[in-house]
Amino acid sequence: MASTNLFSWVLVDLGEVTTSAVAVSLGALLLLIFALQVARREDGPPTLNDPIPGIFNALQFMFDNNTFMLRVQRALKNNNLMRFYIIRKPVYLATGPAAVKAMFGRELMHHVTNQEQMVLFAMPTLQKMNREEVRRWVDDKSGATKTPLPGTAEGIPQRQRLWYTYEHIHVEYLGKPQNLHPLVNLFSSKMELALERYPIGQWVTVSVQDMCRQELAASAMETLFGPELIGLTPDFVSRFWRFDRNAFKLIVGVPKWIDPAVHETHNHFVDGIGTWLENGLSKMNWNGPDTDANWEPLFGGRVVRELVKWMLETNWRKEVIAATLGALIFGLTSNSVPVTIWMLMEMIQDPSLLQAVREEVATAMVIDPKTGNQTLSSHKLVALPLLQSIWTETLRLRINFNITRDVKQPVTINGHLIPKGSILQAPMMVSHCMEDVWAADGHPASEFWAERHVKYIDEIDALGQISRKRVFAMAGDATSYFPFGGGINICPGRQFAKFEVFSAIGLILSRFDIELIGWTQTDGKPSDRAARADLRYSGAGAMPPDRDMKIRWRRIA
Ligand code: HEM
Description:
Layout: H1 6-16, H2 21-40, H3 56-63, H4 65-75, E1 81-86, E2 89-94, H5 97-104, E3 112-113, H6 115-122, H7 131-139, H8 162-175, H9 177-195, E4 203-207, H10 208-225, H11 228-232, H12 236-252, H13 260-283, E5 295-296, E6 300-301, H14 302-313, H15 318-334, H16 336-348, H17 351-362, E7 365-367, E8 374-376, H18 378-381, H19 385-398, E9 399-400, E10 402-407, E11 411-413, E12 416-418, E13 423-427, H20 428-431, H21 435-438, E14 454-460, E15 466-472, H22 494-511, E16 512-520, E17 541-542, E18 548-555
Parallel strand pairs: 2-13
Antiparallel strand pairs: 1-2, 3-10, 4-18, 5-6, 7-8, 9-17, 10-13, 11-12, 14-15, 16-18
Helix pairs in contact: 3-4, 8-9, 8-14, 9-10, 9-22, 10-16, 12-13, 13-15, 16-22
Keywords: Heme, Iron, Membrane, Metal-binding, Transmembrane, Transmembrane helix
Cofactor: heme
Binding site for heme: 491
């Protein structure tokens, strides 16, 4: 690997030519030659304007992602494929069915992968791997599918195939119903316990942001990782949020000398996981009955235990194991929590919507056959049409991330040959906001509209009575909506996320009377406006609200 990450591509290349006066002149000359070369490349799709070819766009992507994405959005209005450069690396920005098929379809899954992105960005930063450790992944050419690519894995045991096993553990133990549902039930009971701390019948002032960032995050972390993660490091949840604020910069490789907080917050977060890991390892009996349990208190859910077991077996340093689990905590928390906050805010600021959803949630109540008590059915919750529409609308507008793949073999998209070595990106912000796909009368695509994905049909009962029934029907087409990515790398936690968010909202709406007090700034001072997306998170996944909402709630059940 010549360079380790995006920042290196830009700054090391640039820095190498700026260390002396001679080098500066040489650098300027090289840039000029490169600029002319870029300008002369007329074949292929249109190029995104770049005032300093190969550099300006890359820096804007990293440091002012929202402005960069607005430019991309405008540029892709009349083209569904555009190109820009990061130094010499061509990056293709694509929208529409052909690109989505190329990126997510099975046909090209060995030609268009996420492996280079993992090796260059996630592994050396998020996962704290050194060069030799990253090299082990580079050397595994066998692919991520169960059947290795021909001629790549002779004599290599399946457990030593890194890409495949890593993917497989996530998909198997997060996604398969027999492993998913015990986790969902455990999450609901933890969330329920957290909410039961509020006294019955008493109005209490609550910050929607603080409540979700604490209760939801802690319940989800305890579900997947067991109680000791927070038990041994009581400020773990705050450590996570401090790290989360800097995660994008960490992943693109902003070095310590530019922003020490990026690395300090990550180290502090990973140290907490390290403490939990050491504790679990010192007590776990790997030959005992808990090894295959759906859940046990030391390592929590099976997905986490299987990851630990496999990483020990394949000889990773403890720090790498802790940091890799940190990446899972990041996946678990950084999107679901802001999405829940947004959904609650949208409902609470619109009393008629809140009432409609409360009525819908009431239909998901069932009688527990064991206790005779009323309880929420998570399966009924995730099928509620209005709640699903609000979820879809929130993901459509609030998840802002470019799904990125590296092109290992040339592929053709919309008649253009994308050469080997290029990067292919599908920007959610473009596809998720296309007017021709998503707009409805009086409701432009850029606006949140709770009912965008709802249809009403007439239903006739046995007595011939007609009633209007609400059904969920996604407004756009699937190739313009990919908040969870797609293909073999699609988010393995997506089903858990949906159950988690719907259960949390179902519990809150069925157990509390809620009244809006008002909007505040994040420091608690009054705000004269409602929340907007915090653009500092553009490109990093979920964009949380930049304002808080103060409410009063009273527990009724
Ligand atoms: C609303 C919630 C969520 C959203 C919008 C979301 C979105 C995403 C996206 C866009 C990706 C990249 C997919 C690709 O490259 O095609 C991803 C990957 C991932 N997500 Fe999620 N996610 C969410 C919740 C979760 C949860 C709850 C978990 C864990 C329980 C999780 C675990 C992961 C993991 C481990 C990966 C990396 C998979 C890999 O390396 O191949 N996510 N997620």
